[in-house]
Amino acid sequence: MQPSTNAGHGTRASLRLNQLAEAAELLTNDPLALLIGMVLDQPMPQGWSGLAR
After folding, report:
1. Which domain, by its residues, includes 6?
2. Distance of alpha carbon 38 from alpha carbon 9, whole angstroms
3. Is 17 left (phi over 0), alpha (psi -120 to 50) or beta?
4. Is residue 46 in a domain?
5. Following DSSP, what letter does each residue of 18-32 receive, concatenated?
6. pLDDT tens for residues 13-30?
7. What pLDDT does 42 receive?
8. Which of 11, 13, 15, 43 is the least crowded, having the fewest Cβ atoms under 10 Å away?
9. Integer angstrom CA distances of residue 48 from 36, 41, 43
10. How far apart are CA 42 and CA 52, in angstroms?
C-alpha cells in the first residue's frame, strides 16, 4: 500500500494490491468493494467448503 503524498489533506490514499489499475482504482474509491474483497479473501473452514466428508 502506497499512501499518496497528500494523505490526510482531503485526499484518499492509493491502494496498490495488484497489477490492474482499474482494480486499484475501484478498491480506493469504493469502500464496499474493499470490504467485500477482504471478506472473500478469507480462508473457509473445510466443513463449510463441502470438501470435508
Report:
1. 1-34
2. 26
3. alpha
4. no
5. SS-HHHHHHHHH-HH
6. 666 666 788 888 888 899
7. 86
8. 43
9. 18, 15, 10
10. 18
